[in-house]
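Researcher: Quick test of sequence recovery. Tokens follow.
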């Protein structure tokens, strides 16, 4: 058999594994529990009602394109850039509500260094062009692991409830009470998905330890309107 055909089949097989969740839903389970009884309580990342605990990527004040009204964080207007927490986190449970604009794109990144990090994707799955890539759809682990098509996502303009749980090597994404992504950092599954992603190529390939860092939580400015509220974190 032609070796190029064998190679192509191998590539398609490995790519399908990282998008397989679009075909079969993940069974509902329990969130990852802390490895010790820390007794930590959830912390509201906007408890002050302003951006005093957040900066832009340069450590400067948050731009005018981000606003807070009645507890709702809104990205609109001129492109103000991504914003990050002053504090760094590695193992945690992060919960938040989000809604996206029509054909909009955004995300919540974690275990970050600068703009780079794991990402809970936020997207209008019906009208944004990124819908063509299953790992770019809402609630997916961007570029790495797709959430299933059967996920319980609410339409544009309605609130969705999200949770990100990262504890040691285990990474989970939850959407409206259902676990939609789970992967173990460093596992064969992780290695395969990572090799098929942009993170293993070009400028990203030099980012040693991607996925295991301690870093700020990042709210992404993707030049589209997006809303967040009730952003709370509990360290594990």
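Model:
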């Amino acid at each position: 058999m032609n070796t190029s055909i064998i190679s192509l089949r191998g590539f398609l097989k490995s790519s399908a594994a990282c998008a397989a969740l679009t075909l079969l839903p993940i069974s509902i389970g329990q969130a990852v529990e802390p490895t010790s009884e820390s007794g930590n309580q959830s912390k509201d990342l906007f408890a002050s009602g302003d951006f005093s605990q957040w900066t832009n990527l340069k450590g400067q004040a948050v731009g005018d394109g981000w606003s807070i009204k009645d507890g709702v964080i809104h990205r609109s207007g001129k492109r103000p850039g991504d914003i990050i927490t002053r504090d760094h986190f590695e193992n945690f449970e992060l919960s938040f509500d989000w809604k996206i604009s029509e054909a909009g794109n955004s995300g919540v990144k974690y275990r970050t260094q600068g703009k780079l990090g794991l990402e809970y994707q936020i997207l209008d799955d019906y009208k944004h062009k990124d819908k063509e890539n299953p790992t770019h759809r809402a609630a997916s682990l961007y570029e790495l692991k797709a959430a299933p098509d059967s996920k319980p996502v609410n339409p544009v303009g309605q609130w969705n409830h999200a949770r990100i749980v990262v504890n040691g090597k285990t990474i989970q994404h939850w959407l409206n009470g259902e676990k939609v992504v789970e992967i173990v950092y460093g596992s064969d599954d992780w290695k395969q998905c990572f090799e098929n992603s942009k993170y293993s190529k070009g400028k990203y390939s030099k980012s040693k330890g991607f996925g295991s860092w301690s870093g700020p939580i990042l709210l992404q400015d993707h030049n589209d309107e997006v809303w967040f509220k009730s952003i709370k974190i509990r360290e594990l």
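Residues 2-13, 20-38 have pLDDT under 50 and may be disordered.
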